[in-house]
Amino acid sequence: MKKFTLSLKKSVFFSSCLVLCVFSGFNSAEEHTVTIQQLLTKYHDNDALGRDVKRFEINVTNTGFCRYRKVFNNGKQEYFAFNLSRLKSMDYYGNVERGELYLRTKNDDVIVQTRNDKKGDIDSMGTYLVIPLKNINVEQLNELSLNFKQVNESLLVASNK
Q1: Is residue 117 part of a domain?
Q2: In angstroms, how far is the first alpha carbon of the chain from the final one?
Q3: CA distances (Å), 124 to each of 107, 109, 142, in order?
Q4: Does residue 1 sit within a domain?
Q5: Keyword Signal: yes or no (predicted)?
Q6: 38-42 long-range contacts, Cβ below 8 Å, gap at least 24?
Q7: Is beta strand 53-60 parallel, antiparallel or unpaired with respect to 65-72?
């Protein structure tokens, strides 16, 4: 009976270790969205926006929404948002010092809103979002692209369930 109990304990121990190892090897969508938000915020180029911009906000949610908001000194606000499941491609135009990241969607999937503008409030749709970046190297751009793909895939799998 002691051999059976010892064998049972060993098998339970190894099984729980195996389960722990398997689940610790996978990154959740939440980890990818946090990484995307951190990279975009860290390398955002405030100088490219000009002195008229008081502040900006980049928010990537666990549900897969990417939001980019600019608030100008005169009170005007520009707001862009899209679901990462609609992301088609990511293009970077520029060099290590300064460039623009284009996040392109499959159709008119980017919500574009302008508030407190002299021309009036405008709501429209677009096919891409442009985020100015600076001091970002190829490895970081590749990491960003990989995280976008991981989130996109996990959102598509979740939507098909």
Answers
A1: yes
A2: 46
A3: 13, 10, 31
A4: no
A5: yes
A6: 39/136, 39/140, 39/143, 39/144, 39/147, 40/101, 40/131, 40/133, 40/144
A7: antiparallel
pTM of the complete model: 0.78
Q: Nearest to residue 149, comparing CAs of 29, 37, 40? A: 29
Residue 3: per-residue pLDDT: 60
Domain count, the chain: 1
Q: Is residue 11 part of a domain?
A: no
Residue 57 lies in a domain: yes
Q: How far apart are CA 113 and CA 122, in angstroms?
A: 6
Residue 18 has pLDDT above 60, yes or no: no
Report residue 144 as tokens.
């960003």
Mean pLDDT of all residues in the chain? 84
CA distance 138 to 71: 29
**Domain housing 155:** 28-160
Residues 121-146: pLDDT tens digits?
A: 999 999 999 999 999 999 999 999 99
Query: Residue 105 burial (CB < 10 Å; 0-12/13-18/19+)?
Result: buried
